[in-house]
Design brief:
With about 150 residues, the chain is of the alpha+beta class. The relative contact order is 0.14. The protein has 3 helices and 9 strands.
Length: about 150
């Protein structure tokens, strides 16, 4: 199945790229989520428009990503409250990327997309952890998160 990507898809390509994928992947994942459109003659003409729009947005986003990186580094460590067992370091459940985004927001940081937060493994204990935030393909920042017991 030939598709034209309308958004970045990891491992596949960026907006405006014409890709060949298996029918099920295209029909069940890419098309319903709006990540791609079917490659037709009319859609092929739109590829250049998509690429130009993406390029102007990417240049603007790179500067903006650097500003957001500076703001995140200025925060230092972000404290997050989570329910934990009494006398133990184990959490009830785990810390999600949504929890980290809301903690950054309450700490006075910029609004982030939860999909940009990359947690290596799961955070299931109290203490300090490091997560990476992918703001742009060229800009990634390491963020210190301290998980404290909610009491």
């Amino acid at each position: 199945m030939k598709l034209i990507l309308t958004a970045d898809v990891s491992g596949l390509g960026g907006p405006g790229d014409i890709v060949e994928v298996k029918d099920g992947y295209g029909r069940n994942y890419l098309l319903p989520r709006g990540l791609a459109i079917v490659a037709t003659k009319g859609a092929a003409k739109q590829v250049e428009v998509i690429r130009r729009a993406q390029e102007t947005r990417r240049i603007r986003d790179l500067d903006h990503a650097k500003e957001v990186k500076t703001a995140l580094e200025g925060l230092g460590s972000v404290t997050l409250k989570a329910k934990a067992a009494v006398g133990s370091k184990k959490l009830f459940g785990s810390v999600t990327s949504s929890d980290i985004v809301s903690a950054v927001r309450t700490a006075g940081g910029p609004a982030l997309d939860k999909r940009s937060v990359d947690i290596a493994g799961h955070i299931k204990t109290l203490g300090k952890h490091t997560v990476s935030v992918r703001l742009h393909p060229e800009v990634t920042v390491a963020l210190a998160v301290e998980v404290a017991a909610a009491g």
